[in-house]
Amino acid sequence: MSTHTPPTKVIIHQLKTGVPGLDEVLGGGLPEFSFNIIAGSPGCGKTTLAHQMMFANATPAKPALYFTVLGEPAIKMLRYQQQYSFFDQAKLSGVAGKGAVRFVNLSELVLKEDLGAVLDEIVKQVEAVGPGVVVVDSFRTVVRKARAERNGGGEVELQGFVQRLALHLTSWQATTFLIGEYAESEIRDNAVFTVADGLFWLYQTVERSSIVRKMQVMKCRGQESVPGLHTFRITGEGIQTFPRTYGLTATTDKKKGTRRLGTGVPELDKMLGGGIPSGHSMLIGGPSGSGKSILGSHFIAEGIRKGESGIVAVFEELPDEYAARGARLGLNVDAALKDGSLEIIYLRPLDLSVDETVHEVVDAVKRVKAKRLVIDSLVGFELALAPGFRTDFRESLYRMIVALTRLGVTIVSTVEIEEDFTSMGLSNFGISFLSDDIIRLRYVSIDGQLRRVMMIVKMRAGKHSIDMREYQVTNKGIVIGERLRGYRGLTSGIPGPWDQGPASIAGARDDMNKNG
After folding, report:
1. Torsions phi, psi of 89, nearest 5?
2. What is the dihedral sign for C-alpha 202, 207, 209, 212?
3. How far apart are CA 226 and CA 21, in angstroms?
4. Rounded to whole angstroms, what are the CA distances from 58 to 6, 54, 266, 456?
């Protein structure tokens, strides 16, 4: 009986792109010898992306060839590209020298000759150099030339030209990038998109006074890329991508609630049944001045006291102000800030993206190996976002909380709630579903005084106190008092004594109206 041995699967090696976050989006890196297109509108970062990947992979043994067909001199392009930190002068040897990165200007050839001559020149240069990376910028110019020839009865068809170009470059084991300004409507009928192995689409939109940049890997043959739009930013470092996975795709669930974390307020720990279960996400909601941030400071300070590192992400005050306020309450965190077991990060650029913020938080958690995280506050977080990113707020927040709690991080988030003294809302954002536990702080009017009341509204891991406890904000932080007794309607914010029924309340109101 004969046995059939299955053919050995071809191994496709992956190249590092040199773009932070992009390898993760691609599923590990760029497939070697692939034929790729970088498309988008002017100014969205196409040329910068190509240069960054080219400099990351060009070597003297396998150099990079950069063909320019726009008529823009390479020296002008390099004048701007060398401002980025990824630019390596040592890889250049003159504009068209013999270094690891070489530039070839095809603009005159494109204008004077047919596409056969253009293809022959590209093939000639590739055969002579044996590059590892080839870039054609802008390929749109070549496409227009091909269409003009086709419409005029020329012999070279666009489909044949693209296929021959791809065949030559792939057979010479070159990873290729074609840069062009395209509209998404052209994808269906454009031959170049059919032949391409990879398709990167870059977007740039203006949201009021902010610029929003996003990237989508529409096509990546042979491997699983992360779908959807990924925010990216162009800085002095070049392009940085912020994958929607936050670098946490390989994490495994850690069992929640294996222990209880103290809040730093002993009476609150009792109300919680021993503290916050590890790996939980807790939401502290309440009006301005109710002590939400102070409870967060207690939680972080208690972790430091027990040797648990922590992160505080603030949006409404500077880190020094946050630390100073904690110090005034006796929660001295200076030593932890100095030894690196605590980081207070402030994130408030005008065009902040939610994914970018989440990456900053996740990176800090990994760097410090934090067990505790405080986000103060979710209202400030949302207001710091560019308008176009606010629609993604709840989705990205959910993904961040799920990812971090899987790492065993316990999260305390604060959210401001406007009191209307007619009901007891849990969140103005509809985000209470994100939380395992909810603490509600509120003001109540009793005997002509505005007093503070605390209650545990939700707790997924076991029993908790159902008492409504009065508390005070003192120079030592939060002090919880006794359960409020003898009142009805505490959740409305305007309670009355139990022995004061509806009729007597109505009578009191009539008396008030008569007396003006």
Report:
1. -60, -30
2. negative
3. 11
4. 36, 6, 60, 59
Least Cα distance to 398 among 274, 275, 503, 281 occurs for 281
Tokens read off for 96: 């068209």
Rounded-to-integer distance, Cα 88 and Cα 245, Å: 30
Bigger pLDDT: 236 or 429?
236
CA distance 261 to 409: 11
Distance CA 349, CA 63 (A): 39
Question: CA of 399: how far to CAs of 258, 344, 430, 516, in Å?
Answer: 22, 22, 15, 55
The torsion angles phi and psi of 312, rounded to 5 degrees, stand at: -120, 120
pLDDT the model gives residue 272: 96
Residues 166, 267: Cα–Cα separation, whole Å: 70
Is residue 132 exposed (0-12), middle (13-18) or buried (19+ Cβ within 10 Å)?
buried
How far is it, in rounded angstroms, from Cα 191 to Cα 163? 9
Alpha carbons 456 and 190: distance in angstroms, whole number: 60
Q: Average pLDDT, whole number, for the chain?
A: 82
d(Cα 154, Cα 146) in Å, to the nearest integer?
9
On whether the CB atoms of residues 223 and 12 are closer than 8 A, the answer is yes
Q: What percent of the chain has pLDDT over 70?
A: 80
Task: Give the Å distances, CA to CA, from 161 to 38, 220, 504.
Answer: 18, 22, 91
pLDDT tens profile 379-397: 877 776 766 666 777 777 8
Q: Which residue in this structure is represented by tokens 């109540």?
A: 444
pLDDT in tens, 393-416: 777 788 888 888 888 899 999 988
**What is the distance between the alpha carbons of residues 481 and 493, in angstroms, rounded to a whole number?**
18
First to last CA, the chain: 106
Q: What does the alpha-carbon distance between residue 215 and residue 160 come to, in Å, rounded to a whole number?
A: 29
The identity of residue 274, as a single letter, is G
At 185, which amino acid appears? S
Longest dimension (CA), the chain: 108
Residue 268, amino acid: L
Enter the pTM of the model.
0.77
Contact 74, 68 (CB under 8 A): yes
DSSP per position, 479-495:
EEEEEP-SEE-GGGT--
**CA distances from residue 122 to 58, 68, 86, 367 in whole angstroms, order as listed:** 18, 11, 26, 46
Q: DSSP character for 448? A: T
Whether 187 and 193 have beta carbons less than 8 Å apart is answered as: yes
Structure tokens at 391: 């629609």
Q: Is the dihedral of CA 127, 128, 133, 134 positive or negative?
A: negative
CB neighbours of 456 closer than 8 A, spacing ≥ 6? 271, 272, 437, 438, 439, 440, 464, 465, 466
Residues in the chain: 516
Q: Alpha helices, DSSP H only, in 32-85?
A: 46-57, 74-81
Q: Phi and psi (nearest 5°) for 221?
A: -70, 140
Measured distance CA(212)–CA(231) in Å, rounded? 8
